[in-house]
Every structure is written in structure tokens, then in C-alpha cells.
Amino acid sequence: MPTKLHFFGAAGGVTGSSMLLEHDGASVLIDCGMFQGSKTEKELNYRPFPFDPTSLSAVLLTHAHIDHSGLLPKLTRNNFKGPIWTTPASAELCAALLADSAGIQEMEVEQLNRRNMQKGGAQVTPIYTRADAAACETQFKTVAFNAWSQILPRLRARWWNAGHILGAASIEVEASDASGAILRLLFSGDVGAGGSQFAADPEGPSGLDFVVMESTYGDTERAKLTPAERQAKLVDEMLAAHGACGPLLIPAFSVERTQELIVDLLQAMDEGQAPRGPIFVDSPLAVRVMDAYFRFGKAQDGSNPFERLKQSTWLQFTESANESKAIERVRGWHIIVSASGMCDAGRVRHHLQRLLWNEQATVMLVGYQAVGTLGRLLRDGVKDVRIQGEHIKVAARIRSLDIYSGHADAPGLVKWAQARGPIRGAIFLTHGEPLSRTGLQGRLQSAGAAAGGVIAPLLDACYRLEGVEAISETIGAPRIPQDAPARHDWHNARADFLNILGQKLQDASSDQAREQLIAKLKSQLAA
Ligand SMILES: [Zn+2]
Fold this sequence. Notes:
eight-stranded mixed sheet, 17 helices, about 525 residues, seven-stranded mixed sheet, alpha/beta
């Protein structure tokens, strides 16, 4: 029976990571991520899996991020009963993240059903519920880094620290056949940037037949900052925010980014580089995953950098909505770290609503801001925003400090691939927007990283692996069109259009000019 590799997600996009390996008559799934891109992609979450969940023998999970783990409870809901192999830290983070994700699914569907009921539309069911997430949690089977686990009689796997987030791994798979021939594969998961005081540098084996690797920043080169340089930049921002006499609001992702930030903020205060003041961590999910950081956090020197968060009297975790609301009444210098990182959901929107008009306040964006999100609008300097239907003038200082990244940049990815050599077959590139992926493909090809070339598989593509040959199998049409413009669907186009319109109206010299512009557009639409 031939060995086959299917690409069921993050092929031509960044989200929905999922690959299926058929070997020796059994099937193993590597990651089961949620699609989070355009509406067209997100709609895939609601469709049946492109494989039979009951036919899977096991799942191997690289890490806890929702775009890699988010559809695991849907597998359980669809009668998958096998083990989900991953590291202890990933299992613990998944417990919090999947319960949170299930809560969001239930809430969104409830709102949708209420609207549908008013309009006489059909009722929909959530992708999965909190009960499914809890049931899924019992299927986790944990593995230590660097030790082999026997997954099937003729397939074993080993988890290597990928240095991306807590517990994140690259997974090495060794598959043998009846004749004793061995096929060696490596699934990169997300590869860390290295040189961080919070995570190990990415590790991995060398001498492989095939490598599947991510390409998120495949065409981007970032300035390398040492931990000290990064800290200095953060201190500058703290001093400037303090000098402006208002609070500092930092929208941040609940997992990892928030924990790293508060370690750095506290260090700046403890070492007297920045004035002391309360730091509010206003994100229930961030609070719920803290235990995992206390238990599994490890710096390059072996110490736990998150340990210091246990003792600080300046740190305040606000879990209930009332505690969150009470932050409004705090006077004097204080910092609020709240999710979501791109300001498109969560409690941070409430803080933005009450602080954006205030010219003494500072809003510091620290991560990736996707097109169409409120975070991106703020970063791009928009002076007027709408939050929960309310029109708000942006007077606060808006700062952007993109120095906290969990991903290797293009040179880092090439270096990572070279360290895996010799690669006798091909490298398959996943987990990247089309331009990033093509960029990395070129870089890897010129570096001669793999003897079998560099392949950019399309969504739902399948390859037969024979020795070191990867032979493309003919399959039906992919579930969604694969050309770039189609991925950028009309919802994105509408968001772009509304952004441009908003900017034009704002830039217009007078209200009269604004009215003229609107009249002109209306007549165009009526034509
Ligand atoms: Zn990730």
C-alpha cells in the first residue's frame, strides 16, 4: 500500500493547518487547525472534514495555537476516538484554548440563531460545543521532547522543541514497510525566531527524506534584536507613555505575547528603568493559561522567566467583568494588557472605547495586525473609528512596536532548513500567504536546500511518496478556488472599500466636500 501525504489546510494560506499521512493501511492526521482567514476560508470550518474522522488511527499535534488545534473538538464530535499525541505544555494550553474557542462558537451561533429566528431563517448548530472540547481533552496523550513514541506498529514519532510558543514542536516521523525500508519525514509546525530569553532556539533532526515546513515570513527580513535591545525599546515606550500623563494600553494575544510582555514590563519597573505602577492583565484566557507558564516556562539558561510574575504586587489579574470595569476608576500611571491583539474582539475594545479620545493615553500595538482589523486601522493612522456602533475620534498616542514575534523570518527559515540537511526528497511549503511562500521557495531553491526540489502544494493536494520521489496524485477540485484573488473575497474587498471611503471623507476639506463625494458615489451606484 503506497504512502501518501494529503494537504487539507494551510496550503495557499496561513490557517487551518492539517495534513494526513496514509501509511501501511492506516491514517494519521498531523494538526487539525481552524481556518481563520477570509469568510470563504472560515466557511470550511462548517463543512464536513475531507476525510472520515473514524478512519484515523491517531492525531499528532505540533502546538496549541487555534490555527493548528482548533478543529480537534470537531473530530471528537464526529466520532474520532483515538489518541491526540502532543507535549504536556501543548495539552495544557489546548485545554484552555479549546474551551475558550468552544465558548465563542456557542455564543456566535446563539446570536446568529436569534437573528435567524427574527428573520425566519434556518437554525444552525455550532461547529462544536464546550462539551465536545471537554471530551476531546480526555483523548490527549502526552510525550516528552526528543523521545520516540510508537504511534502505529510501523510508525513512530519524535517531538523537537520548535522554540515558537510553550510546548511547540516540530514532529519527526519514521515510517517503515514490510521490507524494512524506512521513510523519514519532518513536520516543522511553526518555527521560532530564536535568540529569545523566553524560548529555546528551534531544534530538529537532520538527514530526512521529506520536510513539510511553514513559510509565514518566507519573504520578510526582520532586524535582529538582542533581548537587551528589545527591552530598551520597550522602556523608551514606557517612559514616553508615562511622560504623556495617561495610561498605557497594550492590546496583546492572550497566549505567550501577554506573558512575555508582562515579564518585560515588570523587569523594567524592578530595575528602575521605568516608573512603577499597576499592570492590569485584563484577559480571562491569559489568566487561565498562566499555570502552564509557571509549570513549563523555560529560558535559554534553564530558569523559568515567568516565575517572577508570582511575587509581583504590581501585577493584577482581572477575571470577572466587574473587576475589568473597575480599571476605569484607576487614576495615575498604570498599564493595561488586554486581548485581542488585533483589537477585533475581546475586552480591549471596551478600553479602546473609553481611551482612544484621550490625548494623554497611549495605545501600543505589539503584534501582527491583519488587513481589515481595528488594530490595522489604528496602526495606519486612521483618525476616526467606530466601536460597538459608537463614533470615536482618535486622539490617543498610537504606537507600534513589532518586536515580539514567535516566528523565524526568511533567513531564519532558510537556516532552519539547511540545518535539517541532507534532505534527499522534497521540501513541501505550507502555512504562508502566496507571496511569502513563493519568496521562500525561491530562497530555498537557490540555497539548494533539498535534492528533490521545493513544492508549494495546493489545498487538498495529495502526493504519493515513493523512496525520495513525491508524485502528485490526481484528485478532485479543491474545496475552495486556489487563485489569490478568489481568496481575497468580496468581504475583504468591501472592508478595503469602506476603509478608503472613510479616509477620503476624513481628508475632505469641508462637510460640503464630504456631502458632494457621497452624492457622487450614490449617483454612480444608481446608474
Ligand atoms: Zn503557531
